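Narrative summary of target 7.
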Amino acid sequence: MRPGAMTRLPLGARWLRAGLFAGLLLLLVVVALSARIPRPPSFTMPCGFHALTGLPCLFCGGTRAIRAVLNGQWELALYLNPIAYPAVLAALLLALVLLCEAVLGVALWNCGPWVQRLCRLAPLLIVASLAWWTWHVVSALKTPKPELVNFRNPVAARLAEILKPPGH
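Modeled conformation, tokenized:
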């Protein structure tokens, strides 16, 4: 096969892409509508880090922020967790690629080189994630964001006290 030529997908691979597209789209719709769907309190999965420290993990507020983005509540999404914006964009782009590959029957995206680049960038991505998470925690403690921080937890209470400006 010549370089740059598109690979024809077998029928099974096309159906798999169509199924992944439908599943991803369904997931986005369920998240967008989940505020309106009654659910039992045990529906949510507790965050171990939050349970131990009272502080938000890197992803705390993410589901609510993604729901806010999908419902056009831009400021609320930014307030809860700005990572929701690139997450929704990535999900929509992936859905579009999957749909196009299923319909056209050709592989449009070879993810191998992307995975290799991602592996090389892993240390930088880890440092950037830790920096983001630190900002997220400090912001949640200073604002304060009681929906993300359990101020009854001794760890969170002590950190909030340390971050409080003098005289307050």
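The first helix runs from residue 11 to 33.
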